[in-house]
Specification:
With about 500 residues, the protein is of the alpha/beta class. Helix content is about 25%, strand content about 25%. It has 3 domains: about 170 residues, Rossmann fold; about 180 residues, no CATH class; about 120 residues, Rossmann fold, CATH 3.40.50.1980. The protein contains 10 helices and 24 strands. About 50% of the residues are buried.
């Protein structure tokens, strides 16, 4: 937590208000010396503050879009083709297709800067991503470890064989509740049962088994580069026991709860299970030495909605390890939402200034002047946010949200994220699950829970339970803006005031 802030001067606040009201997502256009493409609206806003009229800035992800799941359009690709500089966040914030599109369409000599990757060099800090939803079954994802040579390279993992009493479907539920199927054993494996991930990435998925018993799934991996090169890198077989009566082979370790990934090392070709132990340390267990358990408490039924017909007849039993977080959510070990600490936004601005000067030396004096003014604004904003959040009572400094985007805000300003809560994908929660969510909110004694505007559609359960518990429902901005909030300064000022008001502090 940053300490007690100093007094804000009238001039400081006036400067902040003036700068937050000018420059939008695009620069001056006709007088622009540089055409800049950014991956998100937050980055576009920061670049426009430094670039002013010398840059024409466009964002690939729309102002109210989700960078974790946005699928770029041909128009986005055309914009990147014209760019002189491209800024991304990095740290695997963006949906992999966005970065692949950037590397495929931007000129070879065009700088492609991922601002979060060297944040410490410019005075910022990066923290590890904390994920713990407290599921009572195994939270199993897919992961790729190890580096792959070549910008925009990816690793494709393909299911090639399944032995077992029933069928397996591996799928992801997007932010609109639509399933994207990666693996479906019911029609055989033809090479299409696969998905791609960038190196050092992880994604959440659902694993649905149609019958109890023991299953053995064989997968293989290969690297894919933008120039079309393909290289096989390894294969392995994983064992699942489905239902309480299925027995694990002797001498194997059974995983039935916690966070784990089916993982492939792109450098060594080894296939294993990557699991987090109780101390938070990561273990890598050879595929032959571990069994992934899907107990009877994971038993569900096939939803009635037509998009889920691939799972079977509505009402049929399924054993499901849920993805837990709705929407595409590919990420690495580090939390990419760095800008929620204003000090990190200052580091972004320093890096943006340096890169714009490198690309357009003649504009150096303009970029230096704009950056200096905006850094003064951000320093005043940092103090304002710290001062506002310092008014929240100590017993109310816990956050329950719909998305794991506020770790930096919590760390910087003395808060604690106690949970990001979303409904289990593809189905309405059971009465017991709704009751458990209510118990969690009641036990934490939080005065309010927090939704993000661009994710509110998938937080109906959290909203409903909060209202049942007499708990407030408030709004925080994480990855994007909307029609009310158009810029970074306004976003962070809103977040601070909303947190203070909803958690019993003073709205300064």
């Amino acid at each position: 937590m940053r300490g007690h802030p100093g007094r804000l001067t009238v001039a400081s606040l006036a400067t902040a208000a003036l700068l937050s009201g000018c420059a939008g997502l695009q620069g001056g256009g006709s007088d622009a010396a540089l055409r800049v493409s950014t991956t998100t609206a937050v980055l576009a806003d920061l670049v426009s503050r430094v670039g002013g009229d010398r840059v024409d800035v466009t964002s690939i992800v729309p102002r109210d879009g989700d960078p974790h799941s946005y699928e770029p359009s041909p128009g986005d690709a055309a914009g990147v083709t014209r760019a002189d500089v491209v800024f991304g966040n990095g740290l695997l914030l963006e949906e992999p297709g966005i970065m692949k599109m950037v590397h495929s369409n931007a000129g070879r000599s065009v700088p492609k800067i991922e601002l979060g990757e060297r944040l410490e060099e410019y005075g910022g800090t990066v923290i590890e991503l904390q994920e713990d939803l407290g599921l009572d079954v195994l939270w199993l994802g897919w992961a790729v470890e190890g580096e792959v040579a070549g910008a925009g390279s990816q690793v494709r993992t393909t299911a090639t064989k399944l032995e077992g009493p029933g069928e397996l479907r591996v799928y992801l539920t997007d932010t609109l509740g639509r399933p994207q199927v990666y693996v479906d054993s019911s029609d055989g494996f033809t090479g299409a049962d696969s998905f791609t991930l960038p190196p050092e990435a992880h994604t959440h998925v659902n694993w649905a088994f149609s019958e109890p018993g023991t299953y053995r799934l064989t997968v293989e991996g290969r690297t894919e580069t933008l120039d079309g090169h393909r290289e096989e890198i390894g294969s392995g077989t994983f064992t699942f026991t489905v239902g309480d009566d299925a027995e694990a082979p002797a001498g194997t370790e059974v995983l039935d709860a916690g966070h784990a990934d089916v993982a492939l090392d792109a450098e060594t070709g080894k296939v294993y299970v990557r699991a987090d132990d109780e101390s938070g340390e990561t273990r890598r267990i050879a595929a032959d030495d571990v069994v992934l358990a899907v107990p009877d408490r994971a038993r569900e039924t096939v939803p009635e909605e037509e998009p889920y017909a691939f799972l079977g007849t509505p009402g049929d039993e399924l054993w499901v390890l849920p993805q837990a977080v709705i929407g595409k959510h590919v990420h690495g070990d580090l939390d990419p939402h760095t800008w929620e600490d204003v000090a990190n936004a200052e580091a972004y601005v320093r890096r943006i200034e340096a890169e714009l000067i490198r690309a357009d030396p003649e504009g150096g004096a303009v970029y230096e002047k704009n950056a200096a003014a905006y850094l003064r604004t951000l320093r005043a904003l940092d103090q304002e946010v710290a001062g506002t959040l310092a008014t929240v009572p100590a017993e109310n400094r816990e956050l329950v949200t719909t998305h794991d985007a506020f770790g930096y805000l919590a760390k910087a300003y003395g808060m604690k994220v106690v949970g990001f809560v979303v409904p289990v994908p593809n189905q309405e929660p059971s009465a017991a699950e709704v009751e458990e969510l209510g118990d969690t909110i009641r036990d934490k004694r939080v005065p309010s829970v927090f939704l993000e505007p661009n994710l509110a559609a998938r937080a109906d359960v959290l909203r409903r339970v909060a209202e049942d518990q007499g708990v407030g429902v408030c709004t925080l901005y994480g990855d994007s803006f909307d029609d009310k909030i158009h810029d970074y300064v306004s976003m962070m000022r809103h977040n601070a005031r909303e947190l203070a008001e909803c958690l019993g502090g003073r709205n300064r």
